[in-house]
Amino acid sequence: MQYLDLGSFIKEADLVITAEGSLDGQTPFGKVPAEVASRAKKTGKPVLAHLRMQSTKLPSCWPVRRKMPYA
């Protein structure tokens, strides 16, 4: 992520979007969404994670179950 200069992208963003196949107990130990969220939190930016599945044991995650309409 240091090669991408992720910090400058986050700094300029209004919303940070990341993706992962599964958000689970392993996420805090090296998965990209955890690092992205951590960096975004330092700048006060909201984060949206697109996931295939999520562990139900993660209390800090709120699922969005509404489909977005096509523009």
UniProtKB/TrEMBL annotation:
- Output the Pfam families linked to this UniProt entry: Gly_kinase
InterPro entries according to UniProt: Glycerate_kinase, Glycerate_kinase_RE-like, Glycerate_kinase_sf
GO BP terms: namely:
organic acid phosphorylation
One example of the protein's molecular function in GO is: glycerate kinase activity
Name of the molecule in the record: Uncharacterized protein
The root-end lineage is: Bacteria, Pseudomonadati, Pseudomonadota, Alphaproteobacteria, Hyphomicrobiales
